[in-house]
Amino acid sequence: MDVRVLGGGPTEPFLSAQGLFETEYDLSKPVRVRVRRDPDERTWTGHYPDHHVLNISAQAATSAMSRELALHEYAHMRRNEEAHPSHTQSTAEAIYIGLAGRRVEQRKLTHCYQIANHMKDIYADDITLSVAPADKLVSFLEASLAAALADRPHDPPRGHRLTPASDPDITAVNAAFALALVERHDLVAPDHRLYDLAHAAADDAPGVPLERFKHHFETLADDPDESEYRKALVDVTRRYAVETGQAAD
Prior knowledge:
This protein is α/β, with parallel strands linked by helices. It contains eleven helices and four strands. It folds into two domains: 3-66 and 76-82, Double Stranded RNA Binding Domain, CATH 3.30.160; 86-241, no CATH class.
């Protein structure tokens, strides 16, 4: 596994993540880490015929989560190389199938892509959590959900949101994802604060069945074929955009 850090960023987090990753897995293509100056640059991975690119902000590359972020992206690269359906299935195609004949709010459509990313993350973190401690990830999930709840609007969203406040509907789905991930890997006790936060998120979005979304994420098959994965993605798209009461025929 060949990892090279470009852009003048720190190398230690990426090499440390490489060491953990290589205890169980490997990548056939080299990895180029590009550290960006923009503090708002999200961590994301590009896949090319002869290499992978990990894009990350300098702020994230020097944060306490830098090693864990790198390890998570290496896991996405692994899923891509092994042609796992979660990383080869066209998200746009599945959403189109799920919403065929429907009119859907733009915010809901955007959320459907985020939900599809959660499904990819489940499979990436199946790898991540097999080689690294979960403490930082659990703390990150807890902090992220707490921040979203603190930023929630006082009234339910109507039409296009004009403020940066968190959307209660997708916050509830994010909470379902967090619970699904920790339960899938038995990471926390039933009295962990994450459950209180998730229930608060569910209370803010009564039209979003938290338990149903949690079950969907938690029970994703380890090794689905393309048809099985497409069906899972189509089903959750339709469930969120059509069955949660905000879409219109």
